[in-house]
Design goal:
Number of strands: 11
Strand order of the largest sheet: 4-3-2-1-10-11
Shape: globular
Distance between the termini: 25 Å
Order of helices and strands: EHEHEHEEEHHHHEEEEE
Strand content: 15-25%
Structural class: alpha/beta
Largest sheet: 6 strands, mixed
Radius of gyration: 18 Å
Number of helices: 7
Helix content: 25-40%
Length: about 250
């Protein structure tokens, strides 16, 4: 049996999104990739927006994602450490996924040491200068009272509404979330430089959210990596204990 010596990072799978033409094929592609990395995977970090929309009810489970959840549970049962850092689309995870799948869920930032190297991990939606409207929505979505009110509405109304909102939001963001805008317009780059300067112990900053693949040196010993998505790029980062590489399945021959 191969040694479990690799750490993987993925982000922005957006499972179940209305703008994905074949949701089953999309899920199966992700599951196939997870199965392919399983023999050598020691740790797996999911950096947010894994599901395009998720609201966790107390007694019922929303339909979908069965194969994906089953694969995560299988990997966790084999001793693979799985950490899910929530994004702006999958913030409403409470206790079902941690308890049933054996996945550690974090809402926010994680700074952790892997093989003696310091990693800053986050989805990335809170990085840089945020518009007042977006700040308000982030705060509202995390408010327990607002969550209870939303949960009291029948899912037959809230789930279709959430998917329509996601699809319209993505259409409105075309050009903003699909291509690199340049270091002067990418809020993650100057933010990462400032963070690296203030935290010289950090070696790598890994983010998602922007749906682009980007690597930049942001400090004397710090590298920023924005790890793309699983809508266009099918990309991921892999750490072998010495080197971090950004890979794209579309480029694998």
């Amino acid at each position: 049996m191969a040694e479990r010596d690799l750490t993987y990072f993925i982000s922005d799978l957006h499972l179940g999104a209305g703008y994905i033409a074949d949701k089953r094929a999309h899920e199966l592609k992700i599951v196939d990739w997870l199965r392919s990395i399983e023999p050598r995977c020691s740790r797996l970090y999911l950096l947010g927006d894994v599901i395009d929309y998720w609201y966790e009810y107390r007694y019922v489970v929303p339909r979908g994602f069965v194969r994906f959840f089953g694969q995560l549970a299988s990997m966790a049962d084999k001793g693979i450490e799985i950490t899910w850092l929530t994004g702006n689309h999958d913030i409403w995870i409470f206790d079902y996924i941690p308890k049933e799948l054996g996945v550690k869920v974090i809402d926010g930032v994680m700074v952790t040491e892997i093989d003696g190297t310091c990693f800053y991990l986050a989805h990335g939606d809170a990085v840089g200068s945020l518009k007042p409207g977006f700040k308000f929505m982030r705060k509202l979505f995390r408010n327990r009272f607002a969550q209870r009110i939303f949960g009291a509405v029948h899912p037959g109304l809230t789930i279709p509404f959430a998917h329509r909102w996601s699809s319209s939001s993505r259409k409105g963001a075309t050009g903003k979330y699909d291509k690199y805008l340049g270091d002067d317009k990418e809020p993650m780059v100057p933010w990462a430089r400032d963070y690296a300067k203030a935290h010289p112990e950090v070696d790598y900053i890994l983010l998602g959210h922007r749906h682009i693949m980007l690597e930049r040196e942001v400090g004397e010993h710090c590298r920023l990596m924005v790890i793309g998505d699983w809508i266009r790029h099918f990309s991921y980062a892999v750490w072998d204990g010495k080197e971090l590489k950004l890979k794209d399945l579309n480029l694998v021959v």
